[in-house]
Amino acid sequence: MSNNPDVLSTPDVLSTPEVPGGGTRDPAGGADPAGGADPAGGGAPPGARVLYDLVQRRRDVRGEFTGAPIAPDVLDRVLAAAHAAPSVGLSQPWDFVVVTGRRAREEFAAHVRHERAVFDATLDASRSRRFAGIRIEGVLTSSVSLVVTYDAARGGPAVLGRHAIADAGLYSVCLAVENLWLAATAEGLGVGWVSFYREPFVRELLGIPARVRPVAWLCLGPVTHLEDRPDLERHGWAARRPLAEVLHAEHWGARIGAHDGATTG
After folding, report:
1. What would the DSSP string read from start to end of 177-238?
2. What is the pTM of this model?
């Protein structure tokens, strides 16, 4: 329990969640927002189909957070899943900063608003109007923030597998974020990755050492629902590409049909 009135105590923030409308939460995250579609194409075994479903239902959440608390054991499971991610040289170069204090989140939210304005100033009039309707964060409406960091010195000085690809450690942190995201989705939670910030600001705000990079500010908490389509697609900002457009056979440019295996290059 903290004596600082600005910091919410852990038991208050991370207690048993209430499901909107009563009842119990589906351990797989509730109803399938994709309308029961089978992303595995019907051929996968049941366990694999659960994973494929989570991959398809995962969303970058902004406006659907309820603010309800997260049970401590649920948060522990989600963080344990993140910590189980693969890492170059078994370096596990990540740390997780759990942010529940209102003041820190308000300061970060104000910083995000400033960076939003900076980005908006780079857009033409049409793009700016579309951007105006897009929400980019849920910092104050989510239950908790998790800041995932990267320490390049972890596992050093000779990190096995990183000598030729310096960013391999950073990629490892991103794998931890994906593990966390899928685990949260399985627990019926939403996650939103906020990227409208400057790293020095977050370092100073949270007292992160200069050698450590704040890679992701994640908003986490129970949600009313998960949208069946990404926000940027729903708002007409961008569209997802079909798998066939990004598959190459043997060398760049030789295309593979996503389902029939035929090359088109």
Report:
1. HHHHHHHHHHTTEEEEEE--S-HHHHHHHHT--TTEEEEEEEEEEEBS---SS-HHHHTTS-
2. 0.83
